[in-house]
Amino acid sequence: MSLPPFPPPPPAPSPALQAELTEFVKGISALCGIDFTRYQRSALLRRLMPRLDLEATGTLTALLAKARADRDCLTRLQGDMTLHVTSMFRDATFFKLVRHQIDLLATYPSPRLWVAGCSSGEELYSYRILLREAGLDKRCRVYATDLSATVLARAQQGLIEPYQLSDHEQAYHEAGGQGNLLDYCQLHDGQLRFHPSLIEDVVFSVHNLLTDGSFNEFQFISCRNVTMYFDEIGQEQAHRLLHQSLTPLGHLGLGIGESLRHSPHRADYRQLGRGEPLFQRIR
To answer: Across residues 143-170, what is the average pLDDT?
Structure first.
């Protein structure tokens, strides 16, 4: 399944809509227990406008009132605002570069890799396969976090949608894979799942890049297509946390279209490869 391109930014909202959105963000943050105040307002509006029609509310004020009264509406709304779009070996040239760098983890006695914003797990599975093919899956402890407990629960199941398998397989080979994804899968109760050995040693946890602190030291951090939805202050906060969590000479992977522009530590990194968002901390 090919992922849709990022849509162009919408026109600037009117002052009245901006004020309404500010009140909506305050209210929904309190309801969800997730601070959305550092999310880009244009990105939030782009996700919220279709929900106005789906919930037949017409305005953000009415949508907030419905979310307060209807728990299912709140769940749907939170799903819209936290948006989980992912795919295995997404941006195959990036993962091909990672494949050439991941052997460096063997130089550490107890390497750790953090997949921040792991969503439903496809990116996590990609890294686990790379580690196995590098002979590092037993040595490298992998941590997978997301702010949504719902998608984390799905990631822990290791499920693969059969209709996506051919696209995943193609991306795997474009990223330098020499085997077959089915070698890592098994049929269980009529469902296709990754073998438990790819999942069972992963540490899963709910974590918010904007409000939670560093919880370990890592030699590789993958935080792809997450910070792009934060405003400048939010990106600065997230990158400060990522830098604090990454060891010198460690690697940081971002998403296509993301950069270290708003990182207070951008001078401490060098970019690897031409145009790929993979960085190494040099100090």
So the answer is: 92
